[in-house]
From TrEMBL:
Keyword flag Lipid metabolism: yes
Top EC category: oxidoreductase
Signal peptide, first to last residue: none
PROSITE patterns: ADH_SHORT
Comp. bias regions, Basic and acidic residues: 19-37
UniProt name for this protein: 3beta-hydroxycholanate 3-dehydrogenase (NAD(+))
Reactions that this protein is recorded to catalyse: 12alpha-hydroxy-3-oxo-5beta-cholan-24-oate + NADH + H(+) = isodeoxycholate + NAD(+); 7alpha,12alpha-dihydroxy-3-oxo-5beta-cholan-24-oate + NADH + H(+) = isocholate + NAD(+); 3-oxochenodeoxycholate + NADH + H(+) = isochenodeoxycholate + NAD(+); 3-oxo-5beta-cholan-24-oate + NADH + H(+) = isolithocholate + NAD(+)
Organism the protein comes from: Gordonibacter pamelaeae
């Protein structure tokens, strides 16, 4: 389960286009918007984004770079995707680091944070975004191995990374976790995944009230995506499944969101614009009211 951490600082492949990476996902997830207007909200900051090689994590990482942050990415297996995102960050004039490994392993998390601090001398923002899901029709089909794996990746990793990052986060630092609309609505085919997302929401609220963080002005918040079009969806259900063909049609806006539509929420919670906000969840879900 554990992979060796690698720190890569070489230049991206010449001519490597981000559209090439997402070419096998139709339509291609949109990581950026031409209408985005950065304002230096994270100038001089250093951020760590897990699951930053694609989807929501990649969109947040690119937006952070546009706002002036140096960004370190953690990813599990998609080398080309990670290469493309780090290349994009560098093209924006910011520094990028990339670490390959399993966030469900505490030692890997410690090495990753240590590598960032060694390289840059600081860590200001932690985005716990990495996650995985394996749909099952029945609880009887969820094996112990799947259950442990889902919890290790989705929620154990957040404990590991906060433990590693906390000694380095400065006064006014920020932690942003990715939960999900499934934490509030449930999902019959994603029982273990939904359970981890409920745990993430409770973790966010509880950690935000911890005196060690409160006394240092470190804020903890979360984003709860609804149906967002990322490579995770066809990978989970199959490209020809009805679930994928009609993905997102059930929300009031009648469509899935794109990763770039999540990125401003992460920027807001990471920067001083949200200085009086902690323990909260921003719902970016196409208009679904969850009353949570």
């Amino acid at each position: 389960m554990t992979q060796t951490a690698t720190l890569e600082t070489q230049a991206p492949k010449a001519g490597y286009a981000m559209d090439d990476v997402r070419a096998n996902v139709d339509p291609r997830p949109q990581l950026e918007s031409e209408d985005y207007r950065p304002a230096g909200k994270l100038e001089g900051k250093a951020a760590l984004v897990t699951g930053g090689d694609s989807g929501i994590g990649a969109a947040a990482a690119i937006a952070f770079a546009k706002e002036g942050a140096d960004v370190a990415l953690v990813y599990y297996s998609s080398d080309d995707d990670a290469q493309a995102v780090t290349g994009r960050i560098r093209s924006l004039g910011r520094r990028a680091l990339v670490f390959k490994g399993d966030v469900g392993d505490e030692e890997f998390c410690r090495r990753t944070v240590g590598g960032i601090v060694d390289a840059w001398g600081r860590l200001d923002v932690l985005v716990n975004n990495a996650g995985e899901q394996t749909p099952q029709q029945s609880i009887l089909d969820i094996t112990q191995a799947q259950l442990v794996r889902t919890f290790q990746t989705n929620i154990f990793s957040m404990f590991f990374l906060v433990k590693a990052a906390l000694p380095h986060l400065p006064e006014g630092g920020a932690i942003v976790n990715t939960t999900s609309v499934t934490a509030y609505q449930g999902s019959p085919q994603l029982l273990d995944y939904s359970a981890t997302k409920g745990a993430i929401t409770a973790f966010t609220r509880s950690l935000s009230e911890n005196e060690e963080l409160v006394s240092r002005g470190i804020r903890v918040n979360a984003v709860a995506p609804g149906p967002i079009w990322t490579p995770l969806n066809p990978a989970s259900y199959g490209t020809d499944s009805s679930k994928v063909r009609h993905f997102g049609e059930g929300v009031p806006m009648g469509r899935p969101g794109q990763p770039y539509e999540l990125a401003p929420a992460y920027v807001f919670l990471a920067c001083d614009d949200s200085s009086y906000i902690s323990g909260q969840v921003i719902h970016v879900n196409g208009g679904t009211v969850v009353n949570g």
